[in-house]
Amino acid sequence: MHFISNRHDLNDMIYVVQRAISTKSPMPILTGIKFEVTDDDLLVATATDLEIGIKYSMPVKVFEPGVAILPSKYIIDLIRLLPDLPIVFKDDPQNSNITVKYGESETAINCYPTEEYPGLEFPDNENSFTIKESVLENTLKQIIFAIASSDTRTAALTGAMFTVNKKQVEIVSTDLHRLTWCILPIENSDIGNKTIIIPGKTLGEINRIIGKNDNNIRVSINENQVLFYFDKVSIISRLMNGQFPKFKHVIPEKHTTRIRVKTKEFLEATERASLLGKEEKSSIKLVINDGLMVISDTTVAGQIYEEISVELDGESTKIGFNAFYLIDLLRIIKSEEIEIDLAGSFSPGVFKPIGEKDNFSLILPVRIEV
Predict the structure, then answer these.
(1) Alpha carbons 182 and 171: distance in angstroms, whole number
(2) Is 60 exceeded by the pLDDT of residue 175?
């Protein structure tokens, strides 16, 4: 293997693929990054932890094709610290290492045996659809906040449910305390009707590397995997087994109170109201009456009171929410105003960004002194 590239392109590549490197596996080979150069002047870098795999392809000047598995611990830091000079990679089969040369300096890194690296195929599956990159990027931010952490007893809650048909995909995520639902338009779908659960870890990694442009992303689904094809990047992930909870019965069919409030103003007031309760289960009380919403909290540290204007339609009401759940939600809402439907102190609050009819979020209330 022998090729030449530059630090900037190599750094971009490493930033993406390192997200699939295993940090806990007893198999040392999974801490490596596979470098493969081809006759058509292409470098393909691959990493996997056997649950998610990421492949990044970019053009380089190839003198000799080949494959090498380099320890991520060393190659990542080396590339990050390289000077802005042409970077030459050349293998030494006799010593089982790769020499990285930059200017008059060089570093030799020992390789893992290539035959030990697991096979990772990215098949061109017919069961696929396309979606705009900017649309998926915006949606991922909305659904990830409601995905359960890995310590949940119901494994399926650590993922999001995708229901795909010819025209759209319905996405739901919930940790049983909050829920997000949305529908996205898709194109070029040859999928009749299919429901899958994608791990939250996979969606989180896609969210970190996805762009905000209008390029199309192709999503393919096979029996137990989902694949995302970007411009330079391909991501493959296992699908989750298990039963996603029946969520529709927790969505209130009616409301007795509807308010409209400025998102930023509500967020800032909620952040201040949460200052005296730093624990995860800190709750705040909302009292809505006569065009005003009072946000308050009383803890051993003291009391806090916030008052903001709202447009009220319906009955006055009082309700409590976990302060940090509410803050997480308000931070991802892009619309200037938000509509909130309430049905008393014991029914979930339904939050709808103004101007976005195909998505909403739900947060269960907490008990407060009324």
Answers:
(1) 5
(2) yes
